[in-house]
Design a protein that fits this description.
10 helices, globular, binds heme C
């Protein structure tokens, strides 16, 4: 009898814990969405993080840990990246300027919310890329060993701290790879990529970025 009571009690406690975990997950998602909608993220990264403007990164479905790392690096000035020749300021400057609006808790919440958003299908490239360029990109991606960290087509990172890199704006992917190769972007875990990306020349980077941009990560 005693045992039965204890078991029943344990089951009840278990149920209560499960229910409160779900409630707090939902609270966190709601809070994250609120951050995204009210703290200007939407203006640059688009609806649900899936429709970025200009050459800005896609965030929908990105790994939450990776998002947290990058937001902290951007806030702290550790990831300033390269300068946009059109404005004379780093591409990321507009985001740096709003990061004082965001608390550590906001960062956690918005990262979880973004990681749960569905990725969009890639935008058709204009002009349509040369099939030879796409083939060269796929080949270089495989030969250089990018798949060991980013997955066979860039859609399945092998560690929750690594980013997905498919279906991105090619101009963004070119910038990111070049900045990491040339040690302009040294924050976070960028150094993990140095051994690999140093073997890629500008043409290979362009080919890889173009190929990755055609890969549909929606529904994966
Ligand atoms: C004024 C435009 C702007 C605003 C506002 C903005 N961002 Fe960004 N964000 C950028 C740009 C541009 C980059 C990429 C910078 C680069 O090229 O290095 C970026 C990068 C990021 C990254 C890194 C993505 C990656 O793949 O490495 C994350 C995460 C991010 N932003 C989240 C947010 C969130 C969340 C907000 C709202 C709190 C926000 N951003 C507000 C422009 C903006
Ligand atoms: C050893 C693991 C590893 C290998 C191999 C690797 N990467 Fe990465 N890559 C990473 C990590 C980790 C990051 C995030 C760096 C950071 O924290 O800023 C990254 C970032 C990137 C980004 C920028 C993503 C963003 O949203 O800003 C691109 C693009 C990329 N890698 C492409 C490649 C390509 C192409 C190759 C092959 C030439 C490659 N990577 C090889 C681990 C790796």
């Amino acid at each position: 009898m005693q045992l039965l009571k204890t078991t029943a009690l344990a089951a009840l406690i278990g149920l209560a814990a499960a229910a409160s975990a779900t409630a707090s997950d939902e609270e966190q998602l709601k809070a994250g969405k609120r951050v995204y909608m009210t703290k200007t993220c939407l203006a640059c990264h688009g609806r649900g993080g899936a429709a970025p403007v200009l050459s800005y990164p896609m965030l929908a479905g990105q790994n939450a840990d990776y998002i947290v790392d990058q937001m902290e690096a951007i806030r702290d000035g550790d990831r300033l990246g390269s300068v946009d020749p059109d404005t004379g300021h780093p591409f990321v400057q507009g985001m740096v300027d709003i990061m004082h609006l965001v608390t550590d808790e906001d960062i956690e919440n918005v990262a979880v919310w973004l990681s749960e958003q569905p990725a969009a299908a890639p935008k058709p490239l204009d002009p349509e890329p040369d099939p030879e360029l796409l083939k060269a990109g796929e080949k270089a991606f495989k030969q250089l060993g990018c798949r060991s960290c980013h997955g066979p087509d860039g859609s399945k990172p092998t560690n929750p701290k690594y980013p997905f890199i498919s279906g991105m704006n090619p101009a963004y992917a070119i910038r990111a790879m070049t900045e990491i190769r040339d040690k302009v972007r040294t924050s976070g875990q960028a150094k993990l990529m140095w051994g690999t990306i140093k073997k890629a020349d500008d043409d290979e980077i362009e080919a890889i970025a173009t190929w990755l941009a055609t890969i549909d990560r929606s529904g994966k």
